[in-house]
Input
Amino acid sequence: MPKFLLATANPGKIEEYRLLLGNLGYQITILAGLAIAKVVAETGSSYEQNARAKAVAYAEISQLITIADDSGLEVDALGGEPGVHSARFAGENATDEEKVRTLLARLNGVPWEKRTACFKCVIAIATPEGQLELCHGECRGIITFEARGKNGFGYDPIFYLPEMGRTMAELPLKIKNKISHRAQAGLKAHRVLKLLHSQAH
Output
């Protein structure tokens, strides 16, 4: 069974990708499973640059097809912030709660109708031979006034989906995995991996 490397240490992302990409006939391996300690810094100014840098570097180290992503939350009232800095928005080692608190504080006094936001995700798929594919996904919503829900991670508890009447963190994972930004990009990644799998045979 061919393997691919999922280049993330985020347990929430690993769980979501296992569900999104688990039925393709690949064995999914993670950085810890290959004892890869190298950290590829996210120094790019776009999700594409960060995802590409990670996928290409880890494909070279592991000699496996590698999937890496970069994602972020863009809040219209903050001019698109935190964007690519979403993970480090509240400081380098901030917890999810601290990130949520920081963002809500920045939006203090902003009325409901101006709290629109978009989750974006770019997945890069790199092969050791140097092929590279980028898959994009996005999901629009509104930033709530307080955190709600216990599922998901990151900014999910304050990302409200009007069509669902709930925050991302109030959704069961299998529903989130049909509508989220990562699910949209994952669907495209699914097709790319399927194609690579058929080429390998």
